[in-house]
Amino acid sequence: MSIRTIVAIVFFSILAVFFVFTALMLSFGEPKKTDMDDYIIMHTQNETGTNSGVTTIVFDYRGFDTLGEATILFAAVSGVIMIFRRVKK
Amino acid sequence: MSEMSKIVRTLSNILFPFIMIFGLYVIAHGHLTPGGGFQGGAVVASGCIMLLVAYGSTWVFEKIKTSRLSVFESLGALGFIGTAFFGLVFGGWFFNNFLVRNGIIFNIVPKTGSTLANFNTAGVLPLMNFSVGVKVIAGLFVIVLVMGYASSLKEWKQ
Fold first, then answer.
1. Does B108 touch chain A (CB under 8 A)?
2. Total structural domains in chain A?
3. Cα separation of B107 and B31, whole Å?
4. Does the global pTM surpass 0.90?
5. Structural domain containing residue A16
6. Residue A89 lies in a domain
7. Secondary-structure percent of chain B, ordered helix, strand, coil, rounded to 5
8. Is the residue at A49 inside a domain?
9. Which of A37, B74, B88, B155 is the most buried (most CB within 10 A)?
């Protein structure tokens, strides 16, 4: 066997061991922690004064996610304008 | 693109104000009802795109400029980040909801539990909804507008 085959066999066996152990460690749906959900449901109206909890999560609790989404939209618009730009002669 | 037939143009004329009102309602009531800046902006932008399809990009390009729309898109992004920075200045950290309880506007806190929706609640969330709405309107519309321009490039060179 060449050294390339040996390296490939070792690599893929390590990868298979990782996948099997990850699949065996957690059963599906575990862990059943609902602390974050309960906290948001109980404290949203008092902390942020909003009736809509989803908007609160999007713009307040997870504001950085929305900032990244806005950045992605900006990058997409810039890319489209750059691709379809007018060519000067 | 050239313009479509008179039936399509009349129908889009009739539908356009209703789409605008619905989209602006979704943006303005983002902190009370399902939806928000992104969804309402997509509705308004699709209404504008319906006009673009019905009347043709040549007609639309005589009315508005792409660069002006990109200015609106950047203004929306600046408003969003600016509101977050005002939280840093007035409240102590980035994205702080500084208008709740002691702001000038949007300062009412509802009782915990199921309450009636009050428009004057939620602190900075309506402002952020508005900036994201402006940004999404201009962004989605300018994408389709530039593509329509590229499709009619030969007409423009003459």
1. yes
2. 1
3. 13
4. no
5. 3-83
6. no
7. 65, 0, 30
8. yes
9. B74
